[in-house]
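#help-structures
NK: newbie question, is this the right format to request a structure? protein is DUF4422 domain-containing protein
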Amino acid sequence: MKVYVATHMKTEAPLPPNYQYIQVNAANNEVFFPLHDALGEDNISAKNPNYCELTAAYWVWKNDHENEVVGLAHYRRFLTVNKFSSSPRAYLNSPRAENLLKRYDFLATKLYRTNATQKQHLLTYVREKDFDLLRGTVQRLYPAYMPAFDEVFAGHESYLLNMFICKKQTWDAYYAWLFSILAALEPQVDMTGYSVQEQRLYGFLAERLFTVYVRCNHCRVKSFPTFLLGKSKWVILMEKVQKMLGMRD
């Protein structure tokens, strides 16, 4: 198993066995990690400002021919078996992941629930014209996915972050589907005048498309908490409790 940890910055934070940093946006910046998304001829590193961590996912799809199980994490976010622990020992490890993948297709984040619909939530990050172009592209390329597409975007929950672990053959099938959609969508999009956030369009769209893929293909997903490096969730929880009880100055 190999879990690739996408990072755009230098970091020395320790990783458990079978985890490895992969530098993203390397085509546009100084290279500081031996493994980066611009290695080899088949990469989309230069598109990182629009594709975010998907440039790492694409690299794994096209260039990892050795590992039977692969995954993607972020340099500050990891799937964990203990959301209150900051130790790398709590990250989802190889033996457990490989055993779970005998019964599940994906090991992913929890379903994030929103009061707004997923379409409304997405439109706080991207423009509606691009959502309409996405829907039209999926309808043209994969009409069988439209019931799941409309159900997900009218609903209130989705897997986010483009983070999951799965068998390499499952990874390849999903990303072949995803990138065929994004490749067809990209020539239709005009980003003139877009903010930096709006330019991250394809990363935002892919988050929700993963849920569409899972629903349409009836994939079995095992969800895990996501640990955010920095302040421990336990510390955050205690600070909230103390504030509620008036114990803080």
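mod (FA): yep, format's fine, and the tokens are attached above. The radius of gyration is 19 Å.
NK: thank you!
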